[in-house]
Amino acid sequence: VLGEYPSTIDQPLGDDTSGGKWNLVGTPFRYDTAWADAQVIDTNGKVVTFNDTASDLIHDTAWRWNGSTYETLTLTSGNLSPFDGIWVYSKKAGTALRVPMSDAERTSSQ
């Protein structure tokens, strides 16, 4: 099968009626993705980074269960492992999380 992967995956957070929701989101990629590279789509469809105002929309720390305890992913440390699931807290309704695909993933021939 020939084709091209999308370069990003947008995952809606919560619902459109209220903020303050926990969300279990995952990455479908076969390579690590830095949590700091994640972006947030605001209610107007604008892409914002954590350096902008994304921390007003979602918590900038994510949590992952490792089988015995929760680990944190922060903007300075933490990668989403292949097919990883993480907990993200959305502060505002109608936002989405965008996890960009790495160049290695997009150009892989596997």
Which key features would you list for this structure?
110 residues; two-stranded antiparallel ribbon; mainly beta
Structure description:
By secondary structure, the chain is mostly beta strands. Helices cover 4% and strands 35% of the residues. It has a 4-stranded antiparallel beta sheet with strand order 1-10-4-5, with no helix packed on it. Strands 2-9 form a two-stranded antiparallel sheet. A hairpin with a 5-residue loop joins strand 4 and strand 5. It is globular. The chain starts with 7 loop residues before the first strand and ends with a helix.
Spell out the helices and strands N to C.
EEEEEEEEEEH
Low-pLDDT stretches are: none
Give the terminus-to-terminus CA distance. 11 Å
Largest sheet: 4 strands, antiparallel
Number of helices: 1
What coarse outline follows from CA principal-axis ratios? globular
Q: Output the strand order for the largest sheet.
A: 1-10-4-5
- Gyration radius from CA atoms, angstroms: 14 Å
Percent range for helical residues? under 10%
Strand content: 35-45%
In terms of structural class, how would the helical and strand content be classed? mainly beta
Give the mean pLDDT: 79
How many β-strand runs? 10
